[in-house]
Amino acid sequence: MNKEPNPELSILVPLYDERDNLRPLFEKLRKVIAGLGVSWEAVFVDDGSNDGSFEVLKKLREADPRRVRVFRLRRNFGKSAALDVGFRAVRGKRVIIMDADLQDDPEEIPALLAGIDQGYDLVTGWRVDRHDRFIKKQTSRLYNLVTSTLTGLRLHDFNCGLKAFRREVVDDISLYGELHRYIPPLANWKGYRVTEVRVRHHPRAFGKSKFGAYRFFAGFMDLLTVMFMTRYSKKPLHLFGGAGLLLFLAGLVINGYLVTLSLLGVDFIRVRPLLFLGVLLMLVGFQLLSTGLLGELMTMSIHRKKEEGIVRETLD
């Protein structure tokens, strides 16, 4: 079989139990991309579906082996894991990711690519008129507000499934847990230019949403991970050392106060429960300071061994 070794565009579609949506999605993709006049591939990552999605993908592959590529995971690992597999597999110079539920409209692909042509490295969709359940829309609104405030990246819709990338962004990002929700801030932290464009969003026609309360909790935990990665992964002492120093000083002040009272004959240290708090604060503070210093040593060691890709352009 003849394959295009370096297509201009890769469409990456992670999926889980989306059997009825796959064929209509692929037909829409073919129609839209035909108007772009570019070589392309569709990379489907089946995240352990149980509804026969893989059988549909096999038929799509048999019908168009030049364009369709399929990866099947052993079980349901989550969207981040599926995207990470796809990121390592795509071959296009530009990459589009989208969900398989047909709520993302393939007709928005040209608008996303136009943003790439304007010089941006990542263009994410903004679902202005979302067709989801009330609770999902409200939790998403809160999530976007918190993420925008904490990361400093002003976007309206961080977790839109429809995004366009330059290839180097895809190669530079590693996903796990629920980090797919934070691709824009991760890319922005690495120095890539990020923007968003308004996109249409459709009601789900087939299948059911995979949204659940646990995903909201897991997403918040991963937000803390992103905050640490983007602010303190290269300077852990600033986080642990700062908190440790404050606790240590608080304990020192408390114990100094108790010692002063004892020396003045006002009270005896041993009968004051405050003594235990002061000692505890000093011990915890010292431990946090030690953790920060150890983190700094590890970071320095890794930095010396690994040449990081932070140079954007070289005139040599």
Which key phrases capture this entry?
316 residues, seven-stranded mixed sheet, 10 helices, disordered C terminus
Detail the topology: elements first, then pairings.
Elements: E1 9-15, H1 19-34, E2 40-46, H2 53-63, E3 68-72, H3 79-89, E4 94-97, H4 109-117, E5 122-127, H5 134-151, E6 163-166, H6 167-172, H7 183-189, E7 194-199, H8 213-231, H9 236-263, H10 274-305
Parallel strand pairs: 1-2, 1-4, 2-3, 5-7
Antiparallel strand pairs: 4-6, 5-6
How would you describe this structure to a colleague?
This protein has helices at residues 19-34, 53-63, 79-89, 109-117, 134-151, 167-172, 183-189, 213-231, 236-263, 274-305, and strands at 9-15, 40-46, 68-72, 94-97, 122-127, 163-166, 194-199. The chain is α/β, with parallel strands linked by helices and 316 residues long. The protein is 50% helix and 12% strand. The protein contains ten helices and seven strands. The protein has two domains: 9-231, Spore Coat Polysaccharide Biosynthesis Protein SpsA, Chain A, CATH 3.90.550.10; 236-305. The relative contact order is 0.11.
Briefly, what is this?
The protein is α/β, with parallel strands linked by helices and 316 residues long.
